[in-house]
Structure formats: C-alpha cells, structure tokens
Amino acid sequence: MVDGGSNAPMNQTGRRAGSGEASLDQAGRRGVVALNGHFLAHPATGSGQYVSHLIGAAERLGADLSLRPFISDHTTRPQPPAFGTQPTVAPFPAAIATRRLPNDLRKVIWEQLTFPLAARRTKADCLHVPYFGSPVITQGIPTVVTIHDLIPLVMPAYVTTPLVALYNRLVSAGARAATLVLADSEASRRDIVRLLGIAPERVRTIYLGVDPHLGLPVSTQVREAVRGKYRLPERFLLYLGGFDVRKNLTGLVDAVASLDPSTGVHLVIAGRVPHPGRRPNLFPDIRRKVIDAGLQGTVHFPGFIDEEDKAALMQLATAFVFPSTYEGFGLDPLEALQAGTPVICANRTSLPELMGEAAIMFDPDAPGELATILGRIWRDEGLRNDLAIRGPRQAARFTWEDCARLTFDAYRAAIDAHKPRSVSGRAP
Predict the structure, then answer these.
(1) Comparing 19-23, 42-46, 367-371, 374-378, which segment has the lowest mean pLDDT?
(2) Does domain 31-209+399-417 sit in CATH 2.60.40.10?
(3) CA gap 150, 259 in Å, rounded
(4) Which of 62, 266, 365, 395 is the most buried (most CB within 10 A)?
(5) CATH class of the domain at 212-395
C-alpha cells in the first residue's frame, strides 16, 4: 500500500498528501480510476507519453487503486503497451455509431458522453481526463482533469474557427465541474486560476517527468551513424519541437541571420515541417523564411527524428535552443538538460521554473539578445562545459515516478472529497 508518510509533498492547500488508503472501501476493495485513454493512440505526443507513464506506474503505486484506461471503438487501436495493460474499448451508442460523423465531433461525443457513461457502468470511483477535455456532466463520479496549458485561451491565433471557440467553452465548463485540476507547472496553475476562475485550492501543480535514458552516454559509433542518417554538420545548434507560431522559430532564424558569417554557426531545425499552405497565420513558412534570409547552407531540416535517435542527436549538438514564448511544461528543453546538452531558452511562462540555473535564458522581445547568446555559446567551451554539468542535475528533479505518485494522491483526494460526511464533518 502506498504511504505518503512524513516525506509526502505539501499539496496546494498546505496539507500533506493522502496516506494511500482513502480509496479502499469498507470491504477492502480496490478503487477503480477510469482513465480517458484517447492519447494512447498517439504515443509520440506529450499527452501520449503522460498517459503511458501513469499506466506503467499504476501497479507499483496503486495498491489501493487500479487504473483502467478506456478507448473509443472509433479511434486507432494503440499498440499494446510494454507494461501489458490492455485498454477497455467503450463503444459509441448505436444511434451514433452508425452515422458518418467528422472525427472532431466523434472526439467530443467520446469525451462528453461515451467515456463517462462507460465509467459509470463499470462503477468507477474516479475519472481522470489527462488533457483539456473533461466532461461537463460527470455522472456523479469524482473527476480529475490535467490541463497541460491554456494556449487557446491565451493566444487568440489558436482559435481558428467558431467551432474551436465553442469547444473551448465546453471543456472550460468541464474543468470547472471537475473535483480537482492538475497543472504541469506553477505558470500553468496561475493561468488556470486566472482564466478559468477555479479556486486555487482545487488546482494542484504536478510536474511531468523526463526519461533518464536520454542521459546515458551514446557511443561514438552510434552518434556518427545518426549524424550520417540525418546529414548533420560537424557542429550545430539544435531546435527540436513544434512549428506553430508560439515556438518563435522566425525569431530564431532572424538571430542566426544576424550573426557574422565568419562565426560558422549551423542550425538544425528537427521535426516534421508542416505544409506551407496549412494555416500560415498559425504555422509560419519556416523554409521560406530561411531562403529569404539566405541561410540555405546554414540552416538544416533533417525531418522527423526517430525516438531511438533522440539521445544521440542531443548529445551531438553544441547547444539546444528553445525560443518558445508559451509552454505549459516544456519537455523538449528538459530532455536536452537530461542529455547534458547546454540549453538556451526564452524566459517565458514555465521555462524559468523548469530550467532553474541550468540554462541561459533570454528575453524574446529584446532585439539582438538571442543572437549575442548564440555567438557566445558557440565560442565559449568553458560555458558549455559548465551548463553540461548543471543540466542533468536539474533534470533529475523531474521524474515520472514522482509525477505518478502525486497523481495517485490526487485521485485519493478527489474520491475522499465525494465521500458523505457526518455531522462532525468527518467521513463515516
């Protein structure tokens, strides 16, 4: 049985996390947490990793709780997880299943109707929606929702249609109806309290984790094979992440363009570049930006990076650059810290609290500041060595084990909050 003990971290109300017994009923039955497993079909995403790590930790941490993932019968079947847990398939109601509906609408029906009804039928003690998509009507079941960020509410460019705006209003109402809300960072927690109007004591910060394997040394042979596979230059600055406008890649290209060509800096922008015609206000044409800046021989686009090559790629890089202006957590620069790669990132939202003193921060609104730092990190080996030591120490503070343990504590707190109270205020 999991015991928070005296070392259990304080929650947002100033109380110690639960003892791990809150969800056992009088007969000693294990409580059941119904988990929305939608992102199991998308394992490469941050939400997919989050769900997989929670399921993987369930048997180690949930002596009093079992975690039961549910998926729709109209989504791509996920590969069986390495830890062996098979999701429960929850079919759509017959009146809906036979209709030809857009996938986005099916997803909404799954979130708001199919999943909570399936959880009620299985007598679940708690619901967990691990992304911003919780049901407005929870079927009377205690509900925990994880909100990784509030990008659609903070940045209007991401509200691309009236239907997106309507969906945001729906899931915002669902978040307000939840028993507890989990945030990935204090920055996200502040946004949730401010923008959704949820009481601070109902919002807990639980940091995500980083895979320790990224810090394991990669042999020279493997690194050089990865260099050849992606046609990487001898030395380079690395960006790995998304391509939407908040990632500020145009600002990064501008900074590289302003460097003296004699510096010899190369930049690798890794990831699958979106088609240039795909919502240009949301996805700037970064290839065109590079061409217009005359940097075709300086900026390299290796495309999608296989997961097994990520550690070698990061360990090959001279430094990792992350100019994003909004991050709920910022897993990519944290993984670079774990790999021992010097990190440069914007001093916005969650990034300062995650990076601590282990990265060089810059103001993305200050012209020329990023370019100055890029030139310095390229030339200064002593600075790079210092950051390479600091990085893994900082990254070690963020583990999936801690994330899962605190999440299970949140399940127990949500279940306990719904128990009937006696006149004295205590659960009978």
Answers:
(1) 19-23
(2) no
(3) 35
(4) 395
(5) alpha beta
